[in-house]
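<backbone_tokenisation>
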Amino acid sequence: MKRLLLVSSSKVHGSGYLEHCEAQILELFARLDNVLFVPYALFDRDAYARQARQRFRSMGLELESIHETKDPVAAVGKAEGIFIGGGNSFRLLGELQRRGLVAPIRDRVEAGMPYLGTSAGSNIACPTIKTTNDMPIVQPASFTALGLIPFQINPHYLDSDPDSTHQGETREQRLTEYLEENYTPVIAIREGGMIVVAGPEIKLEGEPGGVLFRKGQRQEEILPGRRIDGL
């Protein structure tokens, strides 16, 4: 059974790193001895791995970082669970492509290996990374990502503020532009929200909820607990 936890952000206001989703992480990785961490979305991978390892140890879990292994593909092959952290989605996807890790990760997760993604790590689980908020600081071979879910995610979603004096594009406008050229629906997740995949069942969880964007249709508010596998 495919199992994923796709978190909008690793931090929310008033709590520390991964605190708001600790219960869901412990449920996802229950009874695992070791989880493989993928820090490719940030430049300083050593510091990122230290942060993640310390946090996981506080939850009673051991973490191995893929950038410290001699053979990343083999590390994916023997991993019990995988955590792909946030950062820049273009850098993350480019590195996964360069190291030949896209297909191995996809195959293991489709076969049942538990998958945790935060921010960019959630974007990479989508069919493409076209709905990331990140700048293209590197150029991946393509925008095609892991395709573990049938829709796009926009993490860190910010609702439009009618009282704002900012004249730049809102997130709503950017996602509307995406749907002018693409057909795949988008779930925009506010910070603190997360998508939980358990086999055929997909739910949006977390108090702030999200917004569904579909081509040719009005936006729809998605309340916590709603199943969205019909997408």
